[in-house]
Amino acid sequence: RIPYQQILFFEASNKRLNLHLHRKEISFSGTLEKLAEELPEGFLRIHKSFIVNRKAITQIQFSQNLVVLTDGITVPMSRTYKPMLKAVFA
């Protein structure tokens, strides 16, 4: 088991889910839809392929549709989820 606070984000890629930690990645099977239902409130869906840990967000670049996480990692934000992020972080 991995504590939630260590998780940076989840990424769906090639019919697999990738769990990204600081300097480590773990691959497993599943869907982001199912995972999103099981995760606690601190995780946000920001793209069809990404769920991020809200506490790992250091910056949101709305003009470039990017979310910057700790360690300088950037993940894309889709237009679909942009209004929700603006409401949460405004």
Helix-strand blueprint:
Elements: E1 7-13, E2 16-21, E3 24-28, H1 32-38, E4 43-47, E5 50-53, E6 57-61, E7 66-69, E8 74-76, H2 82-89
Antiparallel strand pairs: 1-2, 1-5, 2-3, 4-5, 6-7, 7-8
Written overview of the protein:
Helices cover 17% and strands 43% of the residues. The protein is built from two helices and eight strands; from the N terminus they run E-E-E-H-E-E-E-E-E-H. The strands form two sheets. Strands 3-2-1-5-4 form a five-stranded antiparallel beta sheet, with no helix packed on it. Strands 6-7-8 form a three-stranded antiparallel beta sheet, with no helix packed on it.
Which stretches are low in confidence, meaning pLDDT under 50 for 5 or more residues running?
Answer: none
Helix/strand structural class: alpha+beta
Spatial gap, N to C terminus: 33 Å
Helix content: 10-25%
Portion in strands: 35-45%
Pattern of helices and strands: EEEHEEEEEH
Shape label:
globular
Name the descriptors.
90 residues, alpha+beta, five-stranded antiparallel beta sheet, three-stranded antiparallel beta sheet
Compact description:
This protein is an alpha+beta fold and 90 residues long.
